[in-house]
Amino acid sequence: MTARARPLKTDRVRIVEGIIEPVTPTWDHERAAKAVRRQIEDRVDELGCVEGSGNLDLPGTSNRYVPDIAVVPEDLAKGGGALLPDQTHLIVEVTSESNAETNQVVKRRRSAEYGAALYLLFDRIEGSVTLFSEPGRLGCTLIDGPHPFGTAIRLPEPFDLDLDTSRLAS
Does residue 144 belong to any structural domain of this protein? Predict the structure, then answer.
């Protein structure tokens, strides 16, 4: 007798351009995020920060994002509420079939518009990684990539480390 999977329930949602979407990552998605977390966690601790997937608010819009990983100063993480993209040191998004366009276009553009210093996109559909930095009103002005999985990508200050992307290939 085999057990049947129950429908996944979630109390986490994101609001993207006014549309409420449940946040229900798959295990392969989580595996990719974990590969990134493990590589940055020592440096995150050294910086006095925390990495997680807490809410990011975009005031004046109908948006509230839940990034796969955001790195924020530990003192800001104590408040319990949503933070702003300009309070992050890094936002990491890992695409899935269901959210690829949202991560590739909408969240990337909006994160830059609201001052996110670094936006790292792991595009599992394309098999590539891209780092967006130097945010501005119209998006990021510095783009490193896309690079195929397996290429090390340099995270600039305050991280100053190379990420191995080979573990992200399926």
Answer: yes
